[in-house]
Design brief:
This protein is of the alpha/beta class and 276 residues long. The protein contains six helices and 15 strands. Helix 2 packs across helix 3 and helix 5 runs parallel beside helix 6. The radius of gyration is 18 Å and the shape is globular.
Length: 276
Amino acid sequence: MEKANTSGQSDTVAGILEKSRLQITDEFTAPPVILRVDDSIIGTLGNFSASTGKAKSKKTFNICAIVASALTGSMVLNYHASLPAGKQKIIYVDTEQSRFHCLRVLCRIHLLAGLSTEEKAPGLEFLSLRQYAPKLRLSVIENAIYTSDNVGLVVIDGIRDLAYDINSPNESTELITKLMQWTDERQTHIHTVLHLNKGDDNTRGHLGTELNNKAETVLQITKDEFDKNISSVSAMFIRDRDFEPFAFRINPNSLPEPVENYQPKPAEKKQAFDYK
């Protein structure tokens, strides 16, 4: 029996076996780095990462900074993104908010990038999928990734809404496998969002466990317990060297800005799965 993949090719089990063999004489180039914090690698092409945090911890503000940096190639907050030539398109998917609030997010990205809010940013596509069922959302995202050329970064805010049951081992494994398939076949980077549990600092459900195990980096966004306008960013899991946690506040223009000399409580380090 043959299995058709998303790119339209058809592989037999024997064909997959042959392609899967790794030889000691094989040569590969390191995947291009597209996102850093200081000297730490957060994201590379062909992999995926995530932001996590409790409700209202300013996760979307943090992602806006990542996207703004990717649009301009400049530093925004502590992020420095660099999309290589031929991979400079960005797809931003929101699964939670109304179109009114999605437009506010889009405007925030433009302002952080120093772009006009009167015209479309070149290379940025924004999809609002709140009104659709999980399977249809998943199909739309997959279609966008495979029918768009030059995609270097895909943001999915949030991945929980692509599953019916985040505690289902089968559904969670299938969804994370999709992320690995998309990033590998299309050589793009996906950054997604998942909430932490209300009662502890664990990502939600079996989906959270699978995300932690397979992601290149998981960033934790934590609201300051004494100043609710400040959120800190640290690495919950990271394959590369760790970075010093940093913080941002929301300024009067509703944009995130750095907080200098802030000492946030570091996230509890946990052992993540590594392919090595």
